[in-house]
């Protein structure tokens, strides 16, 4: 029998520290980043032993005190269990009591993998428009079991078609930092896995004298503004809505306070000019490239490749298992504007992974429907 | 003197080739009455298709009892659609066929039982579908991996799905079922399916490019080109009747002037009392009633038609012949003439099949 109850953040953090991998969206500090929502650290107990944890963000429905309980890329439970109901039932009971009209979560399990070579061939092939049309390298049976059980338990998949959905990306690009036997890969080995252009660009950046430095998020101070200026510039060029400086400030402070190794801000400079700047995050053996910015000038010094390589080297040095470049869309259509991003990430030679995606469980049918309608109107 | 199925051989063979070529991995279904053609003929035709280099390597029979009919006429693998049970004909398969027969297993306990008796058995695992006929449930399927681990010689040939006839798209159900196959972590990536449209199959192949999809096809293969098939009966006798004349086993009386026709084809052939309308909706039945006329005096429509018009049974069909009533007016066929018959092929036993 498992039970769920609210736990202090310290206990939550302790549990995450005892794990090799958990999404950074499931650490207690992430709840501080999302300060506009009520947060809760939940623990799963078998007898008195803490065996699972989850960060819940309560998103309020306009005007009434009812919430969508959201566990981004979580919770951190034993997803291999063939009886997930024993984990999920006490969770939903608790959330309902807290006023949730529905639950949304993203089981961190892999359902399919594709190699970089396969993705590349898929983009070149006019007959293939989506990742799902390519035969995967592997289908995950654990992921499939989770999907199967969630279907049976009444959860609904939040389908992602085309671009990025509102929630967390279902498709990510990752570079494994361990070989099949589980041994750490060398820098040379990782470099060899990259395509020629990447290797050439990394070399070129070094030859041009691009210098990469980094600061722990906790200590970033005024330098964060330099990142943000370049990021705002990138947003304007690439037509996306930038987040305010304060958001990154909170992120660096909250995550940095939790662990000095949690978050780093990276700067690639050429003759004093900032040409690329990024943010990396690490939880246990999982390192992420989280945000990135690049200058429009001096693209030929390849600052973006240099800063990525520095982050990968750092992850390797930290003994990480995987370097995660985060979301890609599932489009392989060479004419799609998103395809350039995939091509950039694919050049690192890793693999595309599909996760089980985000799933909803309505707890109050009427309110859940109203919420979906509200989301649709908001577009 | 018989109920005859005449096949335009050239056209039929062209159709068969086209269907097989368009569906890689196709498994012809050869069962029951052989869709009117007989099992033996369809088995031979399957062998002919295999010999054409189509890659056809397996046919499916309905029951173990049907194996001897096809085994000598087709040299490839023989899938039995009825699930294996620890009793009955499944235990009495000719040992000479053991290596060609692919069993269907639909219960966890049967899997263990079959493999204990026949450690090298070839089989497919059937998953239960919304049809709820035979098949393993989700968790049973997951549990098969453990059973198979105990039987190292077992030869798992794939997963079988028996879907209901299309009511909307099957794809979401199939995706759910295939996901369960992945979840089971089994060492197979072959899915045997039935009743998917060409579009559904194409979509399935696209989503599961790493799987081998094997469509089992019966009706659409053998009967897919109705224009190549003609069913006819022979007029055996013609009697002119006046209103009130008595006729037939039951001593009925003629409602008006006309002819009683005796034609070949009766209950022994599968000719039923009511013509198969293919339309069993309330609306269809109401239309039958509304037609009135002779229907109202108790005459029902027969599947026999003369000059393109369906005629009425004068009385219920006999074992090998039927009596029709032809009112005064239209052309009266002569003894020895042929009339067209509309039949349900899967329920009809023809006296002759003529491949022209």
UniProtKB/TrEMBL annotation, chain B:
<feature type="domain" description="Alanine racemase N-terminal">
    <location>
        <begin position="16"/>
        <end position="170"/>
    </location>
</feature>
<dbReference type="InterPro" id="IPR001608">
    <property type="entry name" value="Ala_racemase_N"/>
</dbReference>
<protein>
    <submittedName>
        <fullName>Alanine racemase</fullName>
    </submittedName>
</protein>
<dbReference type="Pfam" id="PF01168">
    <property type="entry name" value="Ala_racemase_N"/>
</dbReference>
<dbReference type="InterPro" id="IPR029066">
    <property type="entry name" value="PLP-binding_barrel"/>
</dbReference>
<dbReference type="InterPro" id="IPR009006">
    <property type="entry name" value="Ala_racemase/Decarboxylase_C"/>
</dbReference>
<dbReference type="GO" id="GO:0003824">
    <property type="term" value="F:catalytic activity"/>
</dbReference>
